[in-house]
């Protein structure tokens, strides 16, 4: 008799592991995906850094160009008076605070420059070798400084201005009309409240002020005259942060040097000279090649500016900017 034998078969296990090849393929695909993610992230980071650097450079250039062009446009403004020979200087050259290098040029010589300087120090700041220095002179209007009645009856009389005018005792002023100008120190102690500007001789009590050597103006001034404040501004590239970087500076005749923009590594100035007296520029040349600064009617400034960070290639982003400005007091 045949007996049926039941053979029990165990089911095949469903928890079998991956093979080595499958693991290696998975790791390769994961590495490729991770590399793609990292590449996109790095590209976005680099793009963001680049845009930030561009923005910083452009913003620095905008500020520097705006300040320089505004001062260049206003250079050589001495009120209505345009004749350098008609300015009478009443300041005492014997006064220890009289700075001839500054004051002797007020009323004339609105423009000066040095080309490719070497071993130059302005104040306490070292100027970068090979860069240019430009000096702008003029006279700034004073808010509310309107001449009022009673007008001067003699050349020694005080000048009446609107009360509240911000003119201080000992401040050097230029009074002018279209036929003459006088440079003097205000000897009135309380001009804002008194409404008068005086030009007496004698010692001034204000520290750093320059006394008048003579009192009488070259003429009497009336309502068509202007009272302005003469100034000298010098732009240069100077050492900043212990020599770690360079900055654009603006130095005033008061002796104060203002750091305008950090990261300016070069400045080259070219002067548009009118050699044919037809109110148009014949050529742009550097300061050493100018025939006569009085014939310069336009200035072209070239500024090289760095971003101040590592930029996109591990080094600061650097761009060169140009600005051309007419000296409007010479072309009008």
Explain the overall architecture.
The structure is a single chain. Helices cover 20% and strands 30% of the residues. It is of the alpha+beta class and 332 residues long. The longest helix is centred in the N-terminal third of the chain and has 55 residues, at 20-74. The strands form four sheets. Strands 1, 2, 5, 7, 8, 10, 11 and 12 form an eight-stranded mixed β-sheet that branches. Strands 14-13-15-16 form a four-stranded antiparallel β-sheet. The protein contains four helices and 16 strands. Strand 3 and strand 4 (125-126) form a beta hairpin. The mean pLDDT is 89.
Q: How do the strands and helices of this protein lay out in sequence?
A:
Elements: H1 20-74, E1 87-89, H2 100-103, E2 111-114, E3 121-122, E4 125-126, E5 133-141, E6 159-160, E7 172-177, E8 180-185, H3 191-194, E9 196-197, E10 226-240, E11 245-252, E12 257-262, E13 264-273, E14 283-285, E15 296-306, E16 318-326, H4 328-331
Parallel strand pairs: 1-8
Antiparallel strand pairs: 2-5, 3-4, 5-10, 6-9, 7-8, 7-10, 10-11, 11-12, 13-14, 13-15, 15-16
Structure described in brief:
This protein has 332 residues and is of the alpha+beta class. 20% of the residues lie in helices and 30% in strands. A hairpin with a 2-residue loop joins strand 3 and strand 4.
Rounded to the nearest angstrom, the radius of gyration is 35 Å
Please report the total strand number as a whole number: 16
What series of H and E elements makes up the topology? HEHEEEEEEEHEEEEEEEEH
Number of helices: 4
* Spatial separation of the terminal alpha carbons: 135 Å
Structural class: alpha+beta
